[in-house]
Design a protein that fits this description.
This protein is an alpha+beta fold. The chain has 3 helices and 8 strands. It has one domain. A 6-stranded antiparallel beta sheet has the order 1-2-3-4-5-6.
Length: 185
């Protein structure tokens, strides 16, 4: 009886060691691809949220990471940052790009979320993201109808919590950018 248990323990130990080694090699092999994909996604997001920039520079100011966009003449055209906050299901992470000179949002790009498919997940759609294009800085009011003022954002039907969460994350990002950069260029 003891030899059967010993053989079973030895077999399970060998399988565990082989699995751990295989998993380690797979992790090492896939990590560069994952990092490359994340970098490409970040660059695409930067192009979306600071459309007038030809090149981007990552800078750290006051312990926060920002992305400054520059035109071909070397002039800063906008600033972006990655911001996150609670959504309906879990954390929503997005990139916000702003024009400090005009005090307007260039746009937003949802990076990660776990919102309800078919409802809250529609925050990634172009129709919803257009709510923020050229939106002036301020406190946004999420409404369930066509916006009637510049500070209103139309909610996604059936996903008011997700819509309000995104609006709050954008407001907080703008505040953080203004705290670090001031109001203007």
């Amino acid at each position: 009886m003891d030899t059967k248990i010993s053989k079973l323990i030895l077999t399970l130990t060998v399988i565990g060691i082989i699995s751990a080694i295989a998993l380690s090699f797979v992790y090492q092999w896939t990590t560069p691809y994952i990092e490359q994909h994340q970098m490409e996604a970040r660059e695409e997001a930067l192009r979306d949220v600071i459309p007038k920039a030809q090149e981007y520079e990552e800078v750290e100011k006051e312990g926060q990471i920002f992305f400054e966009g520059y035109n071909s003449g070397g002039n800063r055209t906008g600033v972006a940052m990655i911001a996150s906050g609670p959504g309906y299901q879990n954390i929503i992470e997005l990139m916000v790009g702003v024009n400090l000179n005009s005090q307007k949002v260039y746009g937003i790009k949802i990076l990660t979320h776990e919102e309800t498919p078919g409802l809250g997940a529609r925050i990634t759609g172009d129709d919803y993201k257009e709510n923020y294009i050229d939106k002036p800085f301020g406190d946004y009011n999420v409404v369930k109808r066509e916006p009637q003022s510049e500070l209103e954002v139309e909610a996604i039907a059936g996903a008011t919590i997700s819509s309000k969460s995104v609006a709050k994350i954008v407001e907080n990002a703008i505040e953080q950018i203004q705290d670090v950069y001031g109001g203007g260029a």
